[in-house]
Amino acid sequence: MAQNIFDCPQPDENGYFGEYGGAFLPPDLEPIMKNIAEEYEKIRKDPDFIAELTDLYQHYVGRPSPIFHARHLSEKYGTPIYLKREDLNHTGAHKINHTLGEALLAKKMGKKKLIAETGAGQHGVALATAAALVGLECDIHMGEVDMAKEHPNVVRMRILGANVVPVSHGRKTLKEAVDSAFGAYMADPDSQFFGIGSVVGPHPYPEMVRDFQSIVGVEAREQFQEMTGELPDNLVACVGGGSNAMGLFTAFMNDETVAMHGAEPSGRSLEEPGEHAATLTLGEPGIIHGFKTYMLKDEEGEPAKVYSVASGLDYPGVGPQHSYLKDIGRVQYGTVSDKEAIDAFFELSRLEGIIPAIESAHALAHAFNLAKANPDIGTILINLSGRGDKDIDFVAEKYGADYGI
After folding, report:
1. Total domain count for the chain?
2. What is the rounded CA–CA span in Å between residue 199 and residue 60?
3. Does 9 fall in a domain?
4. What is the biggest distance separating any 2 CA atoms in the chain, rounded to whole angstroms?
5. Same domain, 191 and 113
6. Which member of 102, 117, 150, 340 is catalytic?
7. What is the mean pLDDT of each run of 10 residues along the chain (405 residues)?
8. Same domain? 294 vs 236
9. CA 143 to CA 117: how far, in whole Å?
10. Same domain, yes or no, for 159 and 303?
11. Residue 385 appears among annotated catalytic residues
12. Nearest to residue 162, comparing CAs of 107, 196, 113?
């Protein structure tokens, strides 16, 4: 690739994108996180590390992932629609892009175990895969609701040798899994490496995960121009924590003709607290899990209960760079309901023969809504961030009767 994934614009020295980001940590964790930031700064400039990661991307992950012109969807919605096929990566989603980088860094730092949270299970599977590859132990914290909902990914993690830690408090979903994993990490930060699953958390994680994920946009920018002779008019990606979106958006950030759209989950209702996870749409600045960003708050100012049909999107915060991009107007953020996402899930499956992750179906639905609202919107490139194998049992049980299954 002509562009190095580590050439992304960086936050300031304290990890801030505008007023968002930073590191709000207990005193005993400050030197640990500072050491991670220092070691990451070394490896991102190390030709040997870059060469090793690039080789794994090509020969292990199967990169570059292709761009597909979805002709049937394009015909239906009256505008050219393209998919960046991250669902074709080894492990079935974009998550492998940053977990390989995190695992290699942890190994070089002499850590013994990778520890992380997961919602839909894609990050957990990817981290367990990377841990097996580099020879590290792996603990994955996962809410019991998500374990039942995404059972195939629980089995995959265990086959790969990971210890899946059930989380039984609160709503037993992603936010509680993050809390649990952070608690376990703080008990032994010296021998463990926290492989955070998105562009969230204290500095340097939002920067580091974004950099590893930026391979998506670096490839897509080159591929789209080769296919069409032009840049896309629009980029669309789902946003929970926001790693797949930042992965696509970053390479296009300075292309003023390219509009960027993030799709948040409105769940069952935007009007009712706890029934959505539309953080950028309805949240306000606050501090969650060691960083400042937009977040959904309860009456006490604590992280609110959230919900989405997509287990990977039900988080009450969001990556700090997304908060900054919202404030400066570079990215427009909209919402997609459960029903719209499930409709899009079946529409892609039946019109193009591709079963998407429910998370990715939010991006699809948002793109369809944009096209319907503006017939002259131009080309749309959607980050198809994951495949739907993990979701088929849940979808068949909950929605099968409505869709003829």
Report:
1. 2
2. 23
3. no
4. 57
5. yes
6. 117
7. 70 96 95 96 96 98 98 98 98 98 98 95 96 98 95 96 96 92 93 96 97 98 98 98 98 97 98 97 97 97 96 96 97 98 98 98 98 98 97 96 95
8. yes
9. 9
10. no
11. yes
12. 113
The strand pairing partners of 382, in sequence order, are 83, 236
> 51-90 burial by CB neighbour count: b if 16+ within 10 A, else e?
ebbeebbeebbebbbebbebeebbeebebbbbbbbbbbbe
> Which domain range does residue 257 map to?
61-92+213-403
Structure tokens at 28: 């005993």
- Structure token pair of residue 220: 């897509």
* Annotated active-site residue in 266, 308, 337, 385: 385
Task: Indicate whether this model's pTM tops 0.90.
Answer: yes
Question: Is residue 126 within 8 Å of 93, Cβ to Cβ?
Answer: yes
Residues 258 and 334 in one domain: yes
Q: What single string gives the DSSP state of each residue in 182-197? A: HHHHHH-TTTEEE--S
In whole angstroms, what is the distance from residue 360 CA to residue 133 CA? Answer: 27
What is the DSSP annotation of 249-264?
HGGGTT-TT-EEEEEE
Cis peptide before 64 (omega within 30 of 0): yes
Catalytic residue, from 95, 175, 305, 326: name it: 95
